Amino acid sequence: MTGFDLVVRSRRTITPEGERAAAVAVRDGKITALYDHAAPLDAAEDIDLRDLALLPGLVDTHVHVNEPGRTHWEGFDSATRAAAAGGVTTILDMPLNSLPPTVNVAAFETKLRAAEGQCHVDVGFWGGAVPGNVKDLAPLRERGVFGFKCFMSPSGVAEFPPLGPAELRLALEEVAGFGGVVVVHAEDPALLTEPGGPTYQEFLDSRPGESERSAVAEVVRLAEETGARVHILHVSSASCLEVLEAARARGVAVTAETCPHYLTLTAERVPEGATSFKCCPPIRGAANRDLLWDGLARGVLSCVVSDHSPATADLKVPDFAAAWGGIASLQLGLPAVWTEAARRGHSLGDVVRWMSTNPATFANISGKGGIKPGNDADLVAFDPAADNPVDASLLHHKNPVTPYHGCTLKGTVLTTWLRGRPVDGVPHGRFLLGEQ
């Protein structure tokens, strides 16, 4: 074959059918075909990674970019640079923490203007479901958001309040009417308490696993009654798995995700005062972590996404009751998950399914999530054996705060291609719009 723009060869190409030696041929930003590794092909550029792995670009459907309004926390330029450095070629931005939050079309247009010309990877957007904006949901969907984020407990910012049970039902009924999806921060506010003091254990005790289980059960009940499709965000408590598995067995349209920090970090090893580890829901114990891995292996949890929620260092005061809750890990998700996955006997194909294929499928992002003909040529050269020492000051995130600082992870991203072009510091990401 002749006339390809790019051919990338690897003896460890991760495809939807499994790992194989292959040459991936690219034309006009799309994967045209997969050939044998040594096939003679005519291309403007032909790269042989040999035994390095070739992955599809990761799809992170849970990223808080915070621009406009809190751009000093994070912004589209810094967030998408970090994404590309971590092998992530598609992100979906969450609707809160920006000012204004994305709860109507006017706010969405404001966000699009803020992001224009800054994106180093492709970016899509969630809308928000808050009290009083039910009539804004369909117009937001028509404008191109991928679905709607809501909270059942306080979000941490006053401009994005939670939905009570009646309001949640109304939102689910509305979104079910046009075939959309609602993604839910599920913690039962009745089971949350104020931390009794500044320690991590007191913070952990204030957000028990039962608060997640209770909220997930309520979401499942309402989804079953309304026919809405729902997705449970950032599951940290393994007590949710039984509820989710039973719901799926009954045919309820519910999916769920977890995050790298819940799969790699444990409560027992959180240093006192190290509020870079604080997030909501919290990092729990090692036994709970093992059960999350089991739920992931069995498909009860289908996606692993970052919930990248950064803040300035001054908000991470060394008091778990007072510090801002959120973990910055967008650039580190792949090596963090691969480090622990490999230790537990999982393959690179498993990691790709959890971090690329399944997120693209759940959010209905076309052309992403796999190395196959017709998809965008979003590719990642990855050395799974390389040591990756983490220095927060060298990350692309806007603020050098991460619980992984000082850790040595396994696996390094060497090159990221977006639609067949290396991500090279010149923004060429596109806005992705959901089905209208």
Account of the protein in words:
With 436 residues, this protein is α/β, with parallel strands linked by helices. It folds into 2 domains: 6-51, no CATH class; 57-365 and 386-409, TIM Barrel, CATH 3.20.20. Helix content is 28%, strand content 22%. The strands form 3 sheets. Strands 1, 2, 3, 4, 5, 15, 16 and 17 form an 8-stranded mixed β-sheet that branches. Strands 9-10-11-12-13-14 form a 6-stranded parallel β-sheet. Helix 7 (240-249) links the parallel strand 12 and strand 13. The longest helix is centred in the middle third of the chain and has 18 residues, at 209-226. The mean pLDDT is 97.
Topology:
Blueprint: E1 6-15, E2 18-27, E3 30-35, E4 46-48, E5 53-56, E6 58-63, H1 76-85, E7 88-93, H2 105-115, E8 122-125, E9 127-128, H3 134-143, E10 148-151, H4 165-177, E11 181-185, H5 200-206, H6 209-226, E12 229-232, H7 240-249, E13 254-258, H8 260-264, H9 286-297, E14 303-304, H10 333-343, H11 348-363, E15 379-389, E16 408-418, E17 421-422
Parallel strand pairs: 1-4, 1-5, 6-7, 7-8, 9-10, 10-11, 11-12, 12-13, 13-14
Antiparallel strand pairs: 1-2, 2-3, 5-15, 15-16, 16-17
Keywords: Hydrolase, Metal-binding, Zinc
Pathway: Nitrogen metabolism; (S)-allantoin degradation; allantoate from (S)-allantoin: step 1/1
Domain Amidohydrolase-related: 54-423
